[in-house]
């Protein structure tokens, strides 16, 4: 088994990449633009020593005839105390009930994204404790990925299951219904805004994942993946997914701001004074906000947690084809970029009909959505590193939300 406290790894110091006259975000989102609002000391709702806001369980799906909670929705006891954030943890569960067959089929992934549930809970609590202005919503799939993959369309999510198929199917339905319920709560409090022909909710959906960095390989060929001691804890980068492919979408300059069917953040990029290029990899992007705060996390290697795409690392494709970062660059890059999956796709819209298979139909108002793929050096770094990184995520997320949606309505 992988160690919970990986050995120290020597890696190159992070530098702007790729090198050249100017990267695309340097050209379109210069450093002279409004500086990162890191929100280190954001105004609290009241001057209190201890915050009285708490996260509670709002709804659960329990397996019939058991006490097993398979899916859970958590959030504020009073929706008036909501934050404009919905977090989902689809792959962090550990339950392996015998009353549900294990998924089976060619090419499917059944390993869990270890510690992503814990980081999601730490992120939620850090937002509460640091700012005391609201409570985010958190949707948890407690089933192990071998029993349900909640980030896939239903057929693949439950592939190979015979015994327990009704329970697994209902768990999948509840997971996505609870996400939509939380989005409705956010809309009810924070409302909507209309940009260039696009109406969307003033909120953010954050889908939490983790990746190993060796492309799922367990044999000697795993060394063809990302560097940074691949066989122990994989690649160092946090991968931010906006449903943009690393090639050609992220190699275009600037990123297409108006392509309504490509990528997420359709609502955010339609708003005045916003562009897709700067939202995704400008100095105020989520990736760059996290990068700027990582010096607050002690005990990690230089590159651990650095984000791509970001102002500093604008092109995942460039990283994957550079021998500094990828062992297999000469062969075209085995270093896979996770651009965003099923959850980000369907919860970018408010009206989702889950009964339409294999792909639910999408309509209605937009809801800004992104996926984070956390590296093993963060997830397996131990309790302190996970907690400190969650604090960094909390600061970055709150700053991003306030810049995008304005001050919290108290």
UniProtKB/TrEMBL annotation:
Region ranges (Disordered): 1-44
Gene3D superfamilies named among the record's database cross-references: Zn-dependent exopeptidases (3.40.630.40)
Domain of life: Eukaryota
Ranges annotated as biased composition (Polar residues): 30-42
Protein name as catalogued: Uncharacterized protein
Source organism of the structure: Skeletonema marinoi
Record lineage: Eukaryota, Sar, Stramenopiles, Ochrophyta, Bacillariophyta
